[in-house]
Amino acid sequence: MKKWYVSQKKADFDAIGKKFGIDPVIARIIRNRDIITEEEIEDFLNPGVHRLHDPASMLGADEGALLILQEIRKGSRIRVIGDYDIDGTCAAFLLLKGFKSLGADVDFDIPDRVRDGYGINVRIIDKAHSDGVEVIVTCDNGISAVSEIAHARELGMRVIVTDHHEIPFEENEGGLRKEILPPADVVINPHQSGCKYPFKGLCGAVVAYKFLWQTYKRAERDTSALLEYLDIAALATVGDIMELRGENRTIVKLGLERFHNCSNIGLNALIDINKLSKKAIAAYHLGFVIGPCINAGGRLDTAKTVVRLLLAEDEFTAVSLAKELFDLNARRKTMTEEGVAEAIGIIEGSDLASDRILVVYLPDSHESIIGIIAGRLKERFYRPVIVLTGSEEEGILKGSGRSIEAYNMFDELSKCKGLFEKFGGHAMAAGLSIRKENLDLLRKTLNDNSTLTEEDLTDRITIDVPMPISYITEKLISQFELLEPFGNGNKKPVFAQKDVDVIEARLVGAEKNVLRLKICDERSGIMEAVKFGETGEFEELIRSKYGEEEAKKLFARGSKKVKINIVYYPKINEFNGRRRIQPEITDFS
Asked: Which residue in 215, 294, 505, 534 could disulfide with 65, CB within 3.0 to 4.6 Å?
Protein backbone atom coordinates (compact mmCIF):
# COMPACT_ATOMS: atom_id res chain seq x y z
CA MET A 1 0.00 0.00 0.00
CA LYS A 2 1.42 3.37 -0.98
CA LYS A 3 1.44 6.17 1.56
CA TRP A 4 0.36 9.66 0.58
CA TYR A 5 2.26 12.70 1.81
CA VAL A 6 1.65 16.36 1.07
CA SER A 7 4.74 18.44 0.33
CA GLN A 8 4.95 21.14 3.02
CA LYS A 9 7.57 23.47 1.52
CA LYS A 10 6.73 27.12 2.19
CA ALA A 11 6.96 30.29 0.10
CA ASP A 12 4.79 33.26 -0.89
CA PHE A 13 3.22 31.50 -3.88
CA ASP A 14 0.94 34.42 -4.75
CA ALA A 15 3.91 36.82 -4.87
CA ILE A 16 5.96 34.40 -6.99
CA GLY A 17 2.98 33.99 -9.31
CA LYS A 18 2.62 37.73 -9.79
CA LYS A 19 6.37 38.25 -10.27
CA PHE A 20 6.69 35.62 -13.00
CA GLY A 21 3.20 35.68 -14.49
CA ILE A 22 2.31 32.15 -13.42
CA ASP A 23 -0.51 30.58 -11.42
CA PRO A 24 0.27 30.18 -7.68
CA VAL A 25 -0.17 26.43 -8.19
CA ILE A 26 2.73 26.46 -10.67
CA ALA A 27 4.77 28.53 -8.18
CA ARG A 28 4.13 25.93 -5.49
CA ILE A 29 5.21 23.06 -7.75
CA ILE A 30 8.43 24.88 -8.64
CA ARG A 31 9.16 25.42 -4.94
CA ASN A 32 8.56 21.70 -4.36
CA ARG A 33 11.38 21.04 -6.85
CA ASP A 34 13.69 23.09 -4.58
CA ILE A 35 13.81 25.97 -7.05
CA ILE A 36 13.99 28.83 -4.55
CA THR A 37 15.76 32.03 -5.58
CA GLU A 38 14.45 34.39 -8.25
CA GLU A 39 17.47 33.55 -10.39
CA GLU A 40 16.75 29.82 -10.10
CA ILE A 41 13.08 30.36 -10.95
CA GLU A 42 14.04 32.44 -13.98
CA ASP A 43 16.46 29.73 -15.13
CA PHE A 44 13.79 27.07 -14.64
CA LEU A 45 11.07 28.92 -16.54
CA ASN A 46 13.34 30.13 -19.34
CA PRO A 47 16.02 27.54 -20.11
CA GLY A 48 18.16 28.30 -23.15
CA VAL A 49 21.60 27.84 -24.69
CA HIS A 50 22.88 30.66 -22.49
CA ARG A 51 22.18 28.45 -19.46
CA LEU A 52 24.71 25.80 -20.56
CA HIS A 53 27.92 25.83 -18.50
CA ASP A 54 31.35 26.57 -19.91
CA PRO A 55 33.13 23.24 -20.61
CA ALA A 56 36.49 24.82 -19.76
CA SER A 57 35.58 24.51 -16.07
CA MET A 58 35.43 20.71 -16.32
CA LEU A 59 38.71 19.28 -15.06
CA GLY A 60 40.65 17.73 -17.93
CA ALA A 61 38.48 19.12 -20.75
CA ASP A 62 40.94 21.77 -21.86
CA GLU A 63 43.97 19.51 -21.43
CA GLY A 64 42.17 16.80 -23.41
CA ALA A 65 41.20 19.28 -26.15
CA LEU A 66 44.82 20.36 -26.61
CA LEU A 67 46.00 16.74 -26.68
CA ILE A 68 43.42 15.52 -29.21
CA LEU A 69 44.02 18.49 -31.51
CA GLN A 70 47.75 17.82 -31.39
CA GLU A 71 47.12 14.18 -32.35
CA ILE A 72 44.69 15.13 -35.12
CA ARG A 73 47.26 17.50 -36.62
CA LYS A 74 49.92 14.77 -36.47
CA GLY A 75 47.57 12.45 -38.39
CA SER A 76 47.46 9.94 -35.53
CA ARG A 77 44.98 7.13 -35.77
CA ILE A 78 42.30 7.63 -33.10
CA ARG A 79 39.76 5.12 -31.81
CA VAL A 80 36.69 6.04 -29.77
CA ILE A 81 35.63 3.25 -27.41
CA GLY A 82 32.08 3.60 -26.15
CA ASP A 83 29.73 1.44 -24.14
CA TYR A 84 26.90 -0.79 -25.32
CA ASP A 85 23.99 1.18 -23.83
CA ILE A 86 22.18 4.28 -25.06
CA ASP A 87 24.55 6.63 -23.23
CA GLY A 88 27.71 4.98 -24.54
CA THR A 89 26.51 4.69 -28.14
CA CYS A 90 25.31 8.30 -28.24
CA ALA A 91 28.64 9.41 -26.75
CA ALA A 92 30.58 7.45 -29.36
CA PHE A 93 28.51 8.99 -32.17
CA LEU A 94 29.11 12.53 -30.85
CA LEU A 95 32.87 12.11 -30.63
CA LEU A 96 33.07 10.40 -34.02
CA LYS A 97 31.12 13.15 -35.78
CA GLY A 98 32.97 15.89 -33.93
CA PHE A 99 36.47 14.52 -34.45
CA LYS A 100 35.80 13.80 -38.13
CA SER A 101 34.63 17.38 -38.63
CA LEU A 102 38.03 18.44 -37.29
CA GLY A 103 39.83 16.23 -39.80
CA ALA A 104 40.65 13.28 -37.56
CA ASP A 105 41.50 9.78 -38.74
CA VAL A 106 39.03 8.20 -36.33
CA ASP A 107 36.94 5.05 -35.99
CA PHE A 108 35.15 3.35 -33.09
CA ASP A 109 34.76 0.14 -31.15
CA ILE A 110 32.23 -0.97 -28.55
CA PRO A 111 32.53 -3.96 -26.19
CA ASP A 112 30.26 -6.93 -26.72
CA ARG A 113 28.04 -7.20 -23.67
CA VAL A 114 28.36 -10.99 -23.35
CA ARG A 115 31.91 -11.56 -24.59
CA ASP A 116 33.56 -8.49 -23.11
CA GLY A 117 31.32 -7.21 -20.35
CA TYR A 118 31.23 -3.57 -19.37
CA GLY A 119 33.90 -1.12 -20.43
CA ILE A 120 37.29 -1.15 -22.09
CA ASN A 121 39.27 -4.38 -21.71
CA VAL A 122 42.57 -5.96 -22.73
CA ARG A 123 41.12 -7.65 -25.83
CA ILE A 124 39.82 -4.34 -27.19
CA ILE A 125 43.11 -2.60 -26.35
CA ASP A 126 45.20 -5.29 -28.02
CA LYS A 127 42.99 -5.13 -31.10
CA ALA A 128 43.40 -1.35 -31.24
CA HIS A 129 47.16 -1.73 -30.98
CA SER A 130 47.28 -4.33 -33.76
CA ASP A 131 45.16 -2.00 -35.93
CA GLY A 132 47.73 0.74 -35.54
CA VAL A 133 45.66 2.93 -33.23
CA GLU A 134 47.76 5.54 -31.46
CA VAL A 135 45.12 7.33 -29.35
CA ILE A 136 42.18 5.83 -27.46
CA VAL A 137 39.32 8.02 -26.25
CA THR A 138 36.82 6.29 -23.97
CA CYS A 139 33.29 7.54 -23.44
CA ASP A 140 30.83 6.46 -20.75
CA ASN A 141 33.48 4.06 -19.44
CA GLY A 142 37.10 3.85 -18.38
CA ILE A 143 37.05 5.47 -14.95
CA SER A 144 37.48 2.12 -13.17
CA ALA A 145 39.72 0.47 -15.80
CA VAL A 146 43.02 1.05 -14.00
CA SER A 147 44.92 -2.04 -15.13
CA GLU A 148 43.45 -1.98 -18.64
CA ILE A 149 44.50 1.61 -19.28
CA ALA A 150 47.91 0.92 -17.78
CA HIS A 151 48.20 -1.84 -20.39
CA ALA A 152 47.31 0.58 -23.20
CA ARG A 153 49.94 3.03 -21.98
CA GLU A 154 52.55 0.23 -21.83
CA LEU A 155 51.79 -0.48 -25.48
CA GLY A 156 52.62 3.15 -26.28
CA MET A 157 49.11 4.43 -26.84
CA ARG A 158 47.83 7.71 -25.45
CA VAL A 159 44.50 7.52 -23.60
CA ILE A 160 41.82 10.10 -22.82
CA VAL A 161 39.09 8.90 -20.47
CA THR A 162 35.71 10.62 -20.59
CA ASP A 163 33.22 9.16 -18.12
CA HIS A 164 30.50 10.14 -15.65
CA HIS A 165 30.44 7.18 -13.30
CA GLU A 166 31.46 7.47 -9.67
CA ILE A 167 35.20 7.51 -9.01
CA PRO A 168 36.42 4.26 -7.41
CA PHE A 169 37.96 4.78 -3.99
CA GLU A 170 39.75 3.16 -1.12
CA GLU A 171 38.63 3.86 2.42
CA ASN A 172 41.11 3.80 5.30
CA GLU A 173 40.37 2.82 8.88
CA GLY A 174 39.41 6.40 9.70
CA GLY A 175 36.78 6.42 6.98
CA LEU A 176 38.71 8.77 4.68
CA ARG A 177 38.35 8.03 0.99
CA LYS A 178 41.18 8.11 -1.53
CA GLU A 179 40.26 8.27 -5.22
CA ILE A 180 41.66 5.64 -7.55
CA LEU A 181 42.02 7.19 -11.02
CA PRO A 182 43.16 5.30 -14.11
CA PRO A 183 46.66 6.19 -15.41
CA ALA A 184 45.34 7.90 -18.54
CA ASP A 185 46.97 10.92 -20.17
CA VAL A 186 43.81 12.85 -19.34
CA VAL A 187 40.75 12.02 -17.21
CA ILE A 188 37.57 14.00 -17.82
CA ASN A 189 34.90 13.24 -15.24
CA PRO A 190 33.01 15.92 -13.26
CA HIS A 191 32.97 13.68 -10.17
CA GLN A 192 36.73 13.74 -9.66
CA SER A 193 37.95 15.90 -6.80
CA GLY A 194 39.22 19.27 -7.89
CA CYS A 195 36.72 19.54 -10.75
CA LYS A 196 34.97 22.91 -10.54
CA TYR A 197 32.29 22.17 -13.10
CA PRO A 198 29.08 23.49 -11.48
CA PHE A 199 26.78 20.60 -12.40
CA LYS A 200 27.91 17.06 -11.61
CA GLY A 201 24.92 15.03 -12.76
CA LEU A 202 25.74 14.74 -16.47
CA CYS A 203 25.46 11.50 -18.45
CA GLY A 204 28.50 10.10 -20.25
CA ALA A 205 27.40 11.43 -23.63
CA VAL A 206 27.14 14.98 -22.30
CA VAL A 207 30.59 14.73 -20.69
CA ALA A 208 31.85 13.71 -24.15
CA TYR A 209 29.83 16.55 -25.69
CA LYS A 210 31.42 19.07 -23.33
CA PHE A 211 34.87 17.74 -24.19
CA LEU A 212 34.04 18.12 -27.87
CA TRP A 213 32.74 21.66 -27.23
CA GLN A 214 36.02 22.66 -25.58
CA THR A 215 37.95 21.05 -28.45
CA TYR A 216 35.97 23.18 -30.92
CA LYS A 217 36.80 26.26 -28.89
CA ARG A 218 40.49 25.43 -28.88
CA ALA A 219 40.36 24.75 -32.62
CA GLU A 220 38.65 28.15 -33.07
CA ARG A 221 35.67 26.48 -34.71
CA ASP A 222 32.09 27.76 -34.48
CA THR A 223 30.63 25.96 -31.45
CA SER A 224 27.07 26.80 -32.55
CA ALA A 225 27.44 23.95 -35.06
CA LEU A 226 27.37 21.55 -32.09
CA LEU A 227 23.84 22.67 -31.17
CA GLU A 228 22.70 20.37 -33.97
CA TYR A 229 23.56 17.43 -31.70
CA LEU A 230 21.51 18.49 -28.69
CA ASP A 231 18.88 15.92 -29.69
CA ILE A 232 21.47 13.16 -29.20
CA ALA A 233 22.58 14.68 -25.89
CA ALA A 234 18.94 14.80 -24.74
CA LEU A 235 18.31 11.21 -25.84
CA ALA A 236 21.30 9.97 -23.83
CA THR A 237 20.35 12.05 -20.77
CA VAL A 238 16.80 10.69 -20.62
CA GLY A 239 17.80 7.18 -21.71
CA ASP A 240 20.43 6.93 -18.96
CA ILE A 241 17.82 8.11 -16.43
CA MET A 242 19.74 11.18 -15.30
CA GLU A 243 17.99 13.72 -13.10
CA LEU A 244 16.22 16.39 -15.15
CA ARG A 245 17.48 19.23 -13.03
CA GLY A 246 19.76 22.14 -13.76
CA GLU A 247 21.76 21.77 -16.93
CA ASN A 248 20.26 18.36 -17.71
CA ARG A 249 16.78 19.85 -17.88
CA THR A 250 18.05 22.61 -20.17
CA ILE A 251 19.73 20.07 -22.46
CA VAL A 252 16.59 17.93 -22.70
CA LYS A 253 14.32 20.94 -23.22
CA LEU A 254 16.52 22.21 -26.08
CA GLY A 255 17.07 18.69 -27.40
CA LEU A 256 13.34 18.00 -27.65
CA GLU A 257 12.98 21.14 -29.75
CA ARG A 258 15.62 19.67 -32.07
CA PHE A 259 13.70 16.38 -32.18
CA HIS A 260 10.66 18.22 -33.45
CA ASN A 261 12.71 19.14 -36.51
CA CYS A 262 15.10 16.19 -36.44
CA SER A 263 17.60 16.04 -39.32
CA ASN A 264 19.37 12.80 -38.35
CA ILE A 265 18.35 10.23 -40.98
CA GLY A 266 18.77 7.29 -38.61
CA LEU A 267 16.77 8.85 -35.79
CA ASN A 268 14.01 9.76 -38.24
CA ALA A 269 13.82 6.14 -39.39
CA LEU A 270 13.50 5.00 -35.76
CA ILE A 271 10.82 7.62 -35.12
CA ASP A 272 8.87 6.47 -38.18
CA ILE A 273 9.04 2.75 -37.43
CA ASN A 274 7.63 3.46 -33.96
CA LYS A 275 4.81 5.47 -35.57
CA LEU A 276 5.67 8.64 -33.65
CA SER A 277 4.99 12.20 -34.71
CA LYS A 278 8.16 14.30 -34.51
CA LYS A 279 6.19 17.33 -33.35
CA ALA A 280 4.68 15.38 -30.43
CA ILE A 281 7.86 13.74 -29.12
CA ALA A 282 8.33 14.27 -25.38
CA ALA A 283 10.81 12.98 -22.81
CA TYR A 284 8.52 9.97 -22.30
CA HIS A 285 9.10 8.82 -25.89
CA LEU A 286 12.87 9.15 -25.52
CA GLY A 287 12.85 7.02 -22.38
CA PHE A 288 10.20 4.43 -23.19
CA VAL A 289 9.92 4.15 -26.99
CA ILE A 290 13.06 5.26 -28.83
CA GLY A 291 15.49 4.51 -26.00
CA PRO A 292 14.57 0.82 -25.59
CA CYS A 293 15.03 0.24 -29.32
CA ILE A 294 18.52 1.74 -29.12
CA ASN A 295 19.41 -0.30 -26.04
CA ALA A 296 18.13 -3.49 -27.69
CA GLY A 297 21.11 -3.48 -30.07
CA GLY A 298 23.64 -3.81 -27.26
CA ARG A 299 21.43 -6.17 -25.30
CA LEU A 300 20.74 -8.87 -27.89
CA ASP A 301 23.15 -8.26 -30.76
CA THR A 302 25.74 -5.50 -31.14
CA ALA A 303 25.58 -1.84 -30.10
CA LYS A 304 27.61 -1.00 -33.19
CA THR A 305 24.30 -1.17 -35.08
CA VAL A 306 23.16 1.91 -33.13
CA VAL A 307 26.24 3.96 -34.03
CA ARG A 308 25.87 2.92 -37.68
CA LEU A 309 22.21 3.98 -37.56
CA LEU A 310 23.08 7.42 -36.18
CA LEU A 311 25.83 7.76 -38.80
CA ALA A 312 23.60 6.60 -41.69
CA GLU A 313 23.70 8.90 -44.70
CA ASP A 314 20.96 7.30 -46.83
CA GLU A 315 17.37 6.36 -46.09
CA PHE A 316 17.64 2.73 -47.25
CA THR A 317 20.43 1.98 -44.75
CA ALA A 318 18.67 3.88 -41.98
CA VAL A 319 15.34 2.09 -42.44
CA SER A 320 17.05 -1.31 -42.53
CA LEU A 321 18.99 -0.66 -39.33
CA ALA A 322 15.97 0.89 -37.57
CA LYS A 323 13.88 -2.19 -38.36
CA GLU A 324 16.63 -4.41 -37.00
CA LEU A 325 16.62 -2.53 -33.69
CA PHE A 326 12.81 -2.42 -33.56
CA ASP A 327 12.59 -6.21 -34.00
CA LEU A 328 15.30 -6.81 -31.39
CA ASN A 329 13.33 -4.68 -28.93
CA ALA A 330 10.17 -6.70 -29.53
CA ARG A 331 12.14 -9.86 -28.74
CA ARG A 332 13.61 -8.19 -25.65
CA LYS A 333 10.12 -7.37 -24.34
CA THR A 334 9.06 -11.02 -24.49
CA MET A 335 12.23 -12.20 -22.76
CA THR A 336 11.77 -9.57 -20.05
CA GLU A 337 8.19 -10.58 -19.28
CA GLU A 338 9.26 -14.21 -18.92
CA GLY A 339 12.16 -13.27 -16.64
CA VAL A 340 10.03 -11.03 -14.42
CA ALA A 341 7.40 -13.75 -14.00
CA GLU A 342 10.07 -16.30 -13.06
CA ALA A 343 11.67 -13.92 -10.55
CA ILE A 344 8.37 -13.09 -8.87
CA GLY A 345 7.68 -16.80 -8.49
CA ILE A 346 11.08 -17.37 -6.88
CA ILE A 347 10.71 -14.45 -4.47
CA GLU A 348 7.14 -15.15 -3.39
CA GLY A 349 7.79 -18.88 -3.10
CA SER A 350 10.85 -18.64 -0.83
CA ASP A 351 12.30 -16.86 2.18
CA LEU A 352 13.62 -14.16 -0.16
CA ALA A 353 10.27 -12.42 0.34
CA SER A 354 11.34 -11.33 3.84
CA ASP A 355 14.68 -9.81 2.71
CA ARG A 356 15.15 -6.05 2.66
CA ILE A 357 17.61 -6.32 -0.23
CA LEU A 358 16.51 -8.84 -2.84
CA VAL A 359 19.27 -10.90 -4.46
CA VAL A 360 17.72 -13.11 -7.15
CA TYR A 361 19.52 -15.71 -9.27
CA LEU A 362 18.00 -16.39 -12.71
CA PRO A 363 20.39 -18.86 -14.40
CA ASP A 364 18.51 -18.92 -17.70
CA SER A 365 17.94 -15.19 -18.19
CA HIS A 366 19.94 -13.33 -20.81
CA GLU A 367 22.42 -11.10 -18.99
CA SER A 368 21.41 -8.13 -21.16
CA ILE A 369 17.94 -7.91 -19.62
CA ILE A 370 18.67 -8.54 -15.94
CA GLY A 371 18.89 -4.79 -15.29
CA ILE A 372 15.39 -4.32 -16.69
CA ILE A 373 14.13 -7.25 -14.63
CA ALA A 374 15.74 -5.74 -11.52
CA GLY A 375 13.98 -2.44 -12.23
CA ARG A 376 10.61 -4.14 -12.60
CA LEU A 377 11.09 -6.09 -9.38
CA LYS A 378 12.10 -2.89 -7.56
CA GLU A 379 8.83 -1.29 -8.67
CA ARG A 380 6.76 -4.29 -7.58
CA PHE A 381 8.37 -4.94 -4.17
CA TYR A 382 9.80 -1.46 -3.52
CA ARG A 383 13.16 -2.52 -2.23
CA PRO A 384 16.71 -2.67 -3.65
CA VAL A 385 17.10 -5.55 -6.09
CA ILE A 386 20.10 -7.34 -7.58
CA VAL A 387 19.42 -9.90 -10.32
CA LEU A 388 22.19 -12.28 -11.35
CA THR A 389 22.59 -14.78 -14.15
CA GLY A 390 25.21 -17.22 -15.40
CA SER A 391 25.64 -20.97 -15.58
CA GLU A 392 27.02 -23.23 -12.86
CA GLU A 393 29.75 -24.36 -15.28
CA GLU A 394 31.02 -20.81 -15.93
CA GLY A 395 31.35 -20.12 -12.22
CA ILE A 396 31.18 -16.34 -12.65
CA LEU A 397 27.76 -14.70 -12.38
CA LYS A 398 26.92 -11.30 -13.79
CA GLY A 399 24.53 -9.06 -11.92
CA SER A 400 22.65 -5.82 -12.26
CA GLY A 401 21.09 -3.83 -9.44
CA ARG A 402 18.42 -1.15 -9.10
CA SER A 403 17.81 0.76 -5.91
CA ILE A 404 15.34 2.94 -4.03
CA GLU A 405 15.85 6.49 -2.74
CA ALA A 406 16.84 5.43 0.78
CA TYR A 407 19.62 3.04 -0.33
CA ASN A 408 22.89 4.10 -1.99
CA MET A 409 23.67 0.92 -3.87
CA PHE A 410 27.18 1.94 -4.93
CA ASP A 411 28.21 2.76 -1.36
CA GLU A 412 26.68 -0.42 0.06
CA LEU A 413 28.31 -2.66 -2.56
CA SER A 414 31.62 -0.88 -1.93
CA LYS A 415 31.49 -2.15 1.66
CA CYS A 416 31.67 -5.75 0.42
CA LYS A 417 33.72 -5.24 -2.76
CA GLY A 418 36.00 -8.09 -1.74
CA LEU A 419 33.25 -10.47 -2.84
CA PHE A 420 33.24 -9.19 -6.42
CA GLU A 421 35.36 -9.85 -9.43
CA LYS A 422 34.26 -6.46 -10.72
CA PHE A 423 31.64 -3.86 -9.91
CA GLY A 424 30.68 -0.25 -10.58
CA GLY A 425 27.74 2.11 -10.78
CA HIS A 426 26.10 4.84 -8.75
CA ALA A 427 23.54 5.38 -5.99
CA MET A 428 20.54 4.04 -7.90
CA ALA A 429 22.06 1.32 -10.10
CA ALA A 430 25.08 -0.97 -10.30
CA GLY A 431 26.63 -3.74 -12.34
CA LEU A 432 28.80 -6.52 -10.96
CA SER A 433 30.36 -9.93 -11.49
CA ILE A 434 30.79 -12.44 -8.69
CA ARG A 435 31.78 -16.06 -8.22
CA LYS A 436 28.82 -18.41 -7.82
CA GLU A 437 30.08 -19.61 -4.42
CA ASN A 438 29.89 -16.02 -3.09
CA LEU A 439 26.23 -15.51 -4.05
CA ASP A 440 24.68 -16.57 -0.72
CA LEU A 441 27.31 -14.61 1.18
CA LEU A 442 26.46 -11.48 -0.84
CA ARG A 443 22.78 -11.84 0.01
CA LYS A 444 23.56 -12.38 3.71
CA THR A 445 26.10 -9.54 3.91
CA LEU A 446 23.86 -6.96 2.24
CA ASN A 447 20.89 -7.86 4.42
CA ASP A 448 22.90 -8.07 7.64
CA ASN A 449 24.40 -4.64 6.95
CA SER A 450 21.10 -3.08 5.95
CA THR A 451 19.76 -0.20 8.03
CA LEU A 452 16.60 0.17 5.93
CA THR A 453 13.44 0.73 8.00
CA GLU A 454 9.85 -0.16 7.23
CA GLU A 455 9.34 3.52 6.44
CA ASP A 456 12.19 3.36 3.89
CA LEU A 457 10.56 0.34 2.26
CA THR A 458 7.13 1.93 1.94
CA ASP A 459 6.49 3.44 -1.47
CA ARG A 460 5.41 7.05 -1.13
CA ILE A 461 3.31 9.34 -3.24
CA THR A 462 4.30 12.92 -2.55
CA ILE A 463 1.43 15.26 -3.38
CA ASP A 464 2.46 18.64 -4.74
CA VAL A 465 -0.88 20.36 -4.28
CA PRO A 466 -4.11 19.20 -2.60
CA MET A 467 -6.27 20.81 -5.28
CA PRO A 468 -10.01 20.47 -5.83
CA ILE A 469 -10.98 19.46 -9.36
CA SER A 470 -13.11 22.62 -9.50
CA TYR A 471 -9.88 24.67 -9.66
CA ILE A 472 -8.74 23.04 -12.90
CA THR A 473 -8.90 25.27 -15.98
CA GLU A 474 -7.47 25.02 -19.48
CA LYS A 475 -5.28 28.02 -18.70
CA LEU A 476 -3.74 26.25 -15.71
CA ILE A 477 -3.15 23.07 -17.72
CA SER A 478 -1.44 25.09 -20.46
CA GLN A 479 1.05 26.40 -17.87
CA PHE A 480 2.17 22.85 -17.08
CA GLU A 481 4.28 23.08 -20.24
CA LEU A 482 6.53 25.50 -18.34
CA LEU A 483 7.39 22.66 -15.97
CA GLU A 484 8.38 20.15 -18.67
CA PRO A 485 10.23 18.02 -19.55
CA PHE A 486 9.14 15.54 -16.90
CA GLY A 487 11.25 12.60 -15.81
CA ASN A 488 13.66 11.52 -13.11
CA GLY A 489 14.29 14.46 -10.77
CA ASN A 490 11.47 16.54 -12.27
CA LYS A 491 8.44 14.35 -11.96
CA LYS A 492 5.06 15.19 -13.35
CA PRO A 493 3.12 17.18 -10.74
CA VAL A 494 0.87 15.27 -8.39
CA PHE A 495 -2.52 16.59 -7.25
CA ALA A 496 -5.04 15.14 -4.84
CA GLN A 497 -8.54 15.69 -3.51
CA LYS A 498 -10.49 14.02 -0.74
CA ASP A 499 -14.14 12.93 -0.86
CA VAL A 500 -14.77 13.20 -4.58
CA ASP A 501 -18.25 12.03 -5.55
CA VAL A 502 -18.23 9.16 -8.03
CA ILE A 503 -21.55 9.14 -9.87
CA GLU A 504 -20.89 6.47 -12.44
CA ALA A 505 -18.18 3.95 -13.38
CA ARG A 506 -17.59 1.84 -16.47
CA LEU A 507 -14.83 -0.33 -17.87
CA VAL A 508 -13.74 0.22 -21.45
CA GLY A 509 -11.05 -1.10 -23.79
CA ALA A 510 -10.60 -4.49 -25.38
CA GLU A 511 -9.25 -5.93 -22.13
CA LYS A 512 -11.49 -3.82 -19.87
CA ASN A 513 -8.38 -2.27 -18.32
CA VAL A 514 -9.46 1.37 -18.61
CA LEU A 515 -11.78 2.83 -15.99
CA ARG A 516 -13.95 5.83 -16.86
CA LEU A 517 -15.58 7.69 -13.99
CA LYS A 518 -18.03 10.54 -13.78
CA ILE A 519 -16.93 12.61 -10.81
CA CYS A 520 -17.75 15.93 -9.14
CA ASP A 521 -17.22 17.89 -5.95
CA GLU A 522 -19.26 20.60 -4.22
CA ARG A 523 -18.19 23.36 -6.62
CA SER A 524 -17.53 21.65 -9.95
CA GLY A 525 -19.92 20.27 -12.47
CA ILE A 526 -19.71 16.66 -13.50
CA MET A 527 -16.55 15.74 -15.40
CA GLU A 528 -15.15 12.53 -16.73
CA ALA A 529 -11.97 11.09 -15.21
CA VAL A 530 -9.93 8.15 -16.46
CA LYS A 531 -7.79 5.51 -14.75
CA PHE A 532 -5.52 3.14 -16.67
CA GLY A 533 -4.96 -0.30 -15.16
CA GLU A 534 -5.75 -1.52 -11.62
CA THR A 535 -9.47 -1.65 -12.43
CA GLY A 536 -9.86 -4.68 -10.16
CA GLU A 537 -8.40 -2.74 -7.23
CA PHE A 538 -10.97 0.01 -7.77
CA GLU A 539 -13.87 -2.44 -7.73
CA GLU A 540 -12.44 -4.07 -4.59
CA LEU A 541 -12.18 -0.67 -2.88
CA ILE A 542 -15.82 0.18 -3.63
CA ARG A 543 -17.01 -3.22 -2.39
CA SER A 544 -15.02 -2.92 0.84
CA LYS A 545 -16.30 0.61 1.58
CA TYR A 546 -19.88 0.45 0.29
CA GLY A 547 -20.81 -3.19 -0.20
CA GLU A 548 -21.52 -5.42 -3.18
CA GLU A 549 -24.90 -3.90 -4.05
CA GLU A 550 -23.62 -0.32 -4.21
CA ALA A 551 -20.65 -1.45 -6.33
CA LYS A 552 -23.02 -3.11 -8.80
CA LYS A 553 -25.23 -0.04 -8.85
CA LEU A 554 -22.23 2.25 -9.55
CA PHE A 555 -21.28 0.22 -12.64
CA ALA A 556 -24.88 -0.34 -13.78
CA ARG A 557 -26.94 2.82 -13.45
CA GLY A 558 -24.97 5.11 -11.16
CA SER A 559 -24.75 5.93 -7.46
CA LYS A 560 -25.27 8.88 -5.16
CA LYS A 561 -23.34 7.47 -2.19
CA VAL A 562 -19.81 6.70 -3.39
CA LYS A 563 -16.95 9.01 -2.41
CA ILE A 564 -13.25 8.34 -2.93
CA ASN A 565 -9.94 10.13 -2.42
CA ILE A 566 -7.96 10.56 -5.62
CA VAL A 567 -4.44 11.36 -6.75
CA TYR A 568 -4.57 12.78 -10.25
CA TYR A 569 -3.04 14.81 -13.06
CA PRO A 570 -5.27 17.17 -15.08
CA LYS A 571 -5.26 16.84 -18.87
CA ILE A 572 -7.17 18.06 -21.89
CA ASN A 573 -8.94 15.35 -23.85
CA GLU A 574 -9.40 16.39 -27.47
CA PHE A 575 -11.60 14.23 -29.66
CA ASN A 576 -13.44 15.08 -32.86
CA GLY A 577 -12.65 18.76 -32.39
CA ARG A 578 -14.12 18.84 -28.90
CA ARG A 579 -11.90 19.73 -25.93
CA ARG A 580 -12.71 18.88 -22.34
CA ILE A 581 -10.85 18.75 -19.05
CA GLN A 582 -10.21 15.17 -17.97
CA PRO A 583 -8.30 14.29 -14.78
CA GLU A 584 -6.15 11.18 -15.11
CA ILE A 585 -6.34 9.29 -11.80
CA THR A 586 -3.09 7.64 -10.74
CA ASP A 587 -4.08 6.37 -7.28
CA PHE A 588 -7.16 6.22 -5.07
CA SER A 589 -8.33 5.28 -1.60
From this structure: 215
